[in-house]
Amino acid sequence: MKPTHDPLDRTELAAALDDADLRVLLMCLVHVTGDRRWLADPYRPRRDVRLIADERAGIPDSVADEIRSAALDALAGGPFGTAIDDPGDELMLEMMRWCMGEDIDAGYAPMMREDLGMTARDVEWHDGSAPPIDRHVVVIGAGASGLIVGARLHRLGVPFTIVERAGDVGGTWRDNTYPGCGVDTPNHAYSYSTGTRYRWSRNFSPQAELLDYLRGCADEFGVRDRIRFESTVTGATWNERDHSWHVRVSTPAGEEQILGTDLVVAIGQFGIPSIPDLPGAADFGGSMFHTTAWPDDLDVSGKRVAIVGTGASAMQIVPVIAGDVEHLTIFQRSPQWARPIPRYHDPISDGAQWLLANVPHYAQWFRFTMLWRYGDGLLPYLRKDPDWPHPDRSLNRVNERHRQEMVAHIEAELGDRTDLLDACVPSYPPYGKRILLDNGWYRTLRRPNVDLVTDPIERLSETGIVTGDGRSHDVDVVVLSTGFRMTDMARAIHPVGRGGITLDDVWGDDDATAHLGITVPGFPNLFLMQGPSTGLGHGGSAIFQAESQTRFITDAIVHMIEGGIAAIEPRRDVHDEFVRDVDERHAGMIWSHPGMSTYYRNSHGRVVSVTPYSLLEYWRMTHDIDLDEYLITPIDHLAST
């Protein structure tokens, strides 16, 4: 075996191994030694579905000591190589199943090999090098999606410009600076599959770390100097004569136009805040703002604060500020399901950090465990059982068990505050709306300076909020935790497609659709990221989705460049068939449950935001473009017009 690594420091390694996740360490031993005995008894990890699982993996202490000792000898005993870099599909599947202690579909092996960097995820030029390129891609938005598509275009050598309305990268992680803001997906899954591994302080990191990570990625990917900051897209029109998008941009220097052969809209579903039209808002004498506009200089100490809404943002804000304010009044339209996450705030130990940074393949397999536990495992249990006798409260046997577990958690957290139970236990099945993470929400509701109000808001007055029962709630600050305009997406840039058609014409008042959530008939060379029917309601990582969509978009652009194609747009019949399949699948899933409103659904009750597909299905669907599904305009047609 050819040595490729200097031996690790024995003392540092020995200390760090005490904090090792043994299921991950076993996979590292397979890679480094090539010995498959680590995939047999007595080294069997116990299945653990908790998001932050026990690192000991149910392995007896004597066996754990043997594993650590073998790792110490293999990694610190002298120069070492990696016997197996890419295990191939068969061994990869065996390793995944052993690591997680459960059966895993064989289709996940190639997907995970790619995501973990064992095989190439990027599109390549078919002849090995780039042909002459006469294209320019305009990307709107420098958040997580815009940055990764920029990175892939930069790697291919395709000219591009990212247009960003703000003065920095980061998207939602730049805009949301409210107290307690953080990610609800484990960071080792909610991060790019490529680039330097970031040192996350904990598994669910706060907003400042996410922003720091994305800023670093913009530099590492080499895209920062291709970003036009403080530039707002005000419109985009497809021009038939030159087969390009004419993008209108408002900048500090005035209005200008950027031409792009291709237009990628990376605004996402969380880019446009939803501001409710509250009667009397102009009369309110205090401070009122959306969570995306939390003032940097705001001090809530000793103030009376109102939170309008009880979604994800509110659940993060409330436990953080409740101890500082004079009084906190929470206005709830409907309760949310929230599940406990033990060790949510726990830091990642120094030993674990050392292993992630130094042991070959450790970070890869740690990422796998996080993505797997927060991935597709829940999806089968979000489907309706037509014979289930209690469809009003749950969907199936497992969903009912989840309900009982969460109700028991709520009851335990509220304790003697039984008066809050009716207001806190939802009537709809668990996961019908976005599932939230409880980081002290229910305990905070018990505080004497916190009130939960379920009467609807009637209007604002000069001194506060008046509810439908006629009661006046005097407050100094009103925080609108009212979510986002999820279904607007690309509509916000007012694109005009072939023949003058607009997205308003296609999507009507509230019905966004796109083939694979990416392309729309009548809009050549327009690509959406995090578009309709691509959000994740069952788990997974939005960055995983962004990388899947980026692969599809760059594959399309490579095909156009290599094939002499000026423009593509999805065939109407292909688009309509995809939408039919989405709707048929949703009809049997939880998000179409009657009597329930959620931002996953539009005003007509159609599920438009989240996907009914597993991560594996969507990865397959978006891996390689099928040009037979598209209307193609060759470049020679452009020359003749």
Any descriptors?
five-stranded parallel beta sheet, 19 helices, alpha/beta, 641 residues, FAD/NAD(P)-binding domain, 14% strand
Overview of this structure, please?
There is one protein chain. It contains 19 helices and 21 strands. The strands form six sheets. It has a five-stranded parallel beta sheet with strand order 3-2-1-7-19, covered by helices on one side. The longest helix has 22 residues, at about 540-565. A hairpin with a 4-residue loop joins β15 and β16. Helix content is about 30%, strand content about 15%. The chain is an alpha/beta fold. It has three domains: about 10-120 and about 350-375, no CATH class; about 135-270 and about 485-640, 3-Layer(bba) Sandwich (FAD/NAD(P)-binding domain), CATH 3.50.50.60; about 280-345 and about 385-480, 3-Layer(bba) Sandwich (FAD/NAD(P)-binding domain), CATH 3.50.50.
